[in-house]
Amino acid sequence: MTDESTDAESARSDASASPIRAVTGLVGSAWTALKTVYYANSLSWRFLKSGTLILFGFFLWAGANVLYSYNPGMTALRYPMAYGFVLILYGPFHHLVVLPLAFRWRRESGTRRTVGRKLPNAMLAVFLTVVLVLGTAPVGAMVVDFQSTLGSDGSDVSPDLLCEGAETENGTEISCELSESEGIDRVVVTSGDTQLVDDSEPPYEFTIRERELESVTGEKQFTVELEDEDGTMIRRYTRRLSMIEGA
Predict the structure, then answer these.
(1) pLDDT, tens digit, for every residue of 19-74?
(2) How many of the other CB atoms lie within 10 Å of CB of 167?
(3) Which of 13, 50, 57, 182 could cysteine-pair with 88, CB 3.0–4.6 Å?
(4) Domain ranges of the chain
């Protein structure tokens, strides 16, 4: 009787452990496959990995930018945005330059052998540090305002909003103009709940001051809305101060 109870308990123990072993084995196999691909050093594999990282980085950067354009309060989106942005630039360099160089130096002796062993991890640490820095303090080239492109009613009116900053005695001033004014009857500029400009006369040029702008999650920004003669909004632009040259 005792032997039967022991066998039953062993069977239950094996049954409960088998899913864990299966998951552990699956994770181990995936990790082994990932390392095999990572260290593959043939020319074809280098270009394949580089191209894959460029595509992955681009879609991650673009997707995070789209979400951030409509949700500027979600500052956590800056980090996947920064990861994708840096990956586009660094991914090919890592697999085309860093890893081949590290593999070559590992076959030598002395200092080069030591550097070759540590170089890939050191460069990945630099990569992650740059991602953290850019995620915390994004540069203008990394942040694209997709809301300007997507936030319209489908009208053919699609001028460019050109803005630049300049330092004056009264602080930073931002001057903006539209590349064309056809089909536009009114331009309204707001920052937060404050209306800064209401212009109904072409060519719709305006100047605002940095101190007039309100901050959203630590970033000063303003919104420009274009309306037609019926008062219908046909285009909206959101500009963050960090995106404007000279500001």
Answers:
(1) 787 778 788 777 787 778 777 778 888 899 999 999 999 999 999 988 887 776 67
(2) 11
(3) 57
(4) 40-136, 146-243
Q: Select from 226, 216, 205 the least CA-distant residue to 153.
A: 226
Q: Residue 186: beta bridge partners?
A: 227
Q: Using CA atoms, how far apart are residues 199 and 186, in angstroms rounded to an integer?
A: 6
Residues facing 240 on adjacent strands: 221
- pTM listed for this prediction: 0.60
Residue 215: φ, ψ to 5°: -100, 140
Q: CA 162, CA 159: separation in Å to the nearest integer?
A: 9
Residue type, 6: T
Whole-angstrom Cα distance, residue 231 to residue 247? 31
The fold adopted by the segment(s) 146-243 is Immunoglobulin-like (2.60.40)
